[in-house]
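Researcher: Watch the backbone:
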Amino acid sequence: MTSSDKSPMPSAELSAQSGMGRALTRLFAIAGGTAVANLYWAQPLLDFIGRDLHASTTAAGGLVTATQIGYAAGALLVVTLGDVLDRRRLIPAMLPLSGAALTAWSIGVLLAAITLLGVTTVSGQILTPLAGDLACDAERDRVVASPGPLLQT
């Protein structure tokens, strides 16, 4: 092996050979971060939600618990589906369910919807192995584990 065989491939050349270019890597990172943020978005809004939906502070506080219960159920049930089903189809199927949580008109409906939102929040845990599947061998570690490619221009 010559010294030129040992040199790493330029980043642009790697991206051209991979199914995970920089733009798709950024999209996956944003989607994963947004999905995880679903676990916490209601916390600073609980007083407003309670007033708007004419619910007690206790009932509004139950929204945070419901989201976490949904997330636990999703981790147990949905993430395991990612090992059996095609992840490329599973993730887009989950996104409309996440949006359904935004249509609540009462505290009861919001409680059910936010539990469903917690279940779909696990899409971030499904995106990571999908990114690994799509990346070429030479860049898999950077696509899956490092924020470096996201921050480089």
User: Anything to note?
Assistant: The longest helix spans residues 57-84.
